[in-house]
């Protein structure tokens, strides 16, 4: 079976936002054994959208149209689809009641355009939106192209796809064979090096298949098995994962598309009841902001320090002026003192420090990208690690944060 994805939105067409919905839906369809051979992006223009739909239905069994279901004047997707199919739009009364109740509760006036969010194509199946107002729609046509209409906001689309669309497609197309994927995440190894160590597996892949993806500062590996049920698929994935981890397991830190190093580290801290603080120079609070984005971090993170200037290092966390004068701020000694003192001041189990040269200019004779990261772990001796990055200023700062997270992760693993 062949599907095509059409993303609607001028902001996507102009590159103002990333088309993350398309990749999510494509992966979801692949997991059902539905191939996606084409994707289109169309601005908020009904004529061009109709042209895109006409092209898609000539070459696809299922056309997925995403976005343009909201209450504004340029949200015309369902109207265009209905007109193209020669059908009218009908009201999902339950969805309309939800909209009316919401507006009454929030004390806002309900306009005609707001009511449009409860419409779906006659003869189709209204798909409930648990995280928004605009319903989706699935139009199944015997011996012709089917249409799936989904909202644009990722939070709404992802929930609707997982909760409702997948079961509907399985039932409609009587899908029994299952594609099951497992995403492995690695830090400290580049995509080329990872692929090189797995060359023979990639070259000879059959079932499961392997695919590498470079992310921001890390690499993911997707294993995909094709089987009659989840049990068989999991057995295939387990066997392949063991082979992979025997080769590159030292770089592995977690699973899943919706995961990252900060989330893994914060969850480790919570699980082991370890508190943490930080003293940041070149990263200027980026480490603390990053872990602060993870739910539950308040249980282990009381706060920290941003000591950008040399004077701040001395005045806020009592790094001896003699250390700064003798060794400079870009030094092993300063990184150690920063970690040691911040841990002492906030009485935490762990402290991490960052000092160095973000760039683009040199500092104290050190080239841009020179970074020292200090780590104080409970009663262990405080240590500092030197790094040399060759990116722009912002990437040097971000790589510093990632390497700091990885040092913490490894220290926790080593001691627990």
TrEMBL record:
Domain MoaB/Mog, first and last residues per copy: 4-172
Signal sequence, renumbered to the chain: none
InterPro entries per UniProt: CinA (IPR050101), CinA-like_C (IPR036653), CinA_C (IPR008136), CinA_KH (IPR041424), Competence-induced_CinA (IPR008135), MoaB/Mog-like_dom_sf (IPR036425), MoaB/Mog_dom (IPR001453)
Pfam families assigned: CinA, CinA_KH, MoCF_biosynth
Family (UniProt): Belongs to the CinA family.
PANTHER family xref list: NICOTINAMIDE-NUCLEOTIDE AMIDOHYDROLASE PNCC, NMN AMIDOHYDROLASE-LIKE PROTEIN YFAY
Protein name per UniProt: Putative competence-damage inducible protein
Name of the coding gene: cinA
């Amino acid at each position: 079976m062949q599907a095509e994805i059409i993303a609607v939105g001028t902001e996507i067409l102009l590159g103002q936002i990333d088309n993350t919905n398309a990749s999510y839906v494509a992966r979801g369809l692949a997991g059902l054994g539905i191939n996606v051979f084409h994707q289109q992006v169309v601005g908020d223009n009904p004529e061009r959208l109709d042209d895109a739909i006409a092209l898609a239905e000539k070459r696809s069994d299922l056309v997925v149209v995403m976005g343009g279901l909201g209450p504004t004047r340029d949200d015309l997707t369902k109207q265009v689809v209905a007109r193209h199919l020669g059908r009218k739009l009908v009201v999902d009364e339950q969805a309309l009641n939800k909209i009316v109740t919401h507006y009454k509760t929030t004390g806002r006036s309900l306009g005609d355009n707001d009511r449009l969010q409860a419409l779906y194509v006659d003869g189709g199946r209204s798909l409930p939106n648990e995280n928004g107002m605009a319903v989706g729609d699935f139009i199944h046509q015997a011996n012709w192209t089917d249409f799936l209409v989904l909202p644009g906001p990722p939070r709404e689309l992802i929930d609707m796809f997982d909760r409702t669309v997948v079961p509907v497609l399985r039932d409609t197309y009587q899908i029994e064979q299952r594609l099951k994927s497992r995403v492995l995440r690695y830090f400290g190894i580049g995509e080329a090096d990872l692929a090189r160590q797995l060359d023979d597996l990639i070259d000879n892949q059959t079932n499961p298949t392997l695919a590498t993806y470079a992310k921001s500062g890390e690499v993911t590996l997707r294993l995909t098995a094709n089987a009659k049920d989840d049990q068989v698929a999991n057995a295939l994935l387990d066997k392949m994962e063991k082979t992979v981890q025997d080769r590159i397991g030292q770089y592995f830190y977690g699973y899943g598309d919706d995961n990252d190093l900060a989330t893994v580290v914060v969850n480790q801290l919570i699980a082991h009841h370890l508190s943490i603080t930080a003293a940041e120079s070149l990263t200027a609070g980026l480490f603390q902001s990053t872990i602060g984005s993870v739910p539950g971090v308040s249980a282990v993170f009381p706060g920290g320090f941003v000591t950008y200037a040399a004077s701040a290092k001395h005045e806020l966390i009592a790094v001896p002026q003699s250390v700064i004068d003798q060794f400079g701020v870009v030094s092993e000694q300063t990184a150690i003192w920063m970690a040691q003192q911040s841990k002492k001041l906030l009485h935490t189990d762990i402290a991490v420090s960052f000092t160095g040269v973000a760039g683009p200019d040199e500092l104290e004779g050190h080239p841009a990208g020179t970074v020292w990261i200090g780590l104080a772990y409970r009663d262990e001796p405080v240590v500092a690690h030197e790094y040399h990055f060759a990116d722009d200023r912002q990437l040097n700062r971000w790589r510093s944060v990632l390497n700091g997270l990885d040092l913490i992760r490894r220290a926790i693993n080593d001691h627990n």
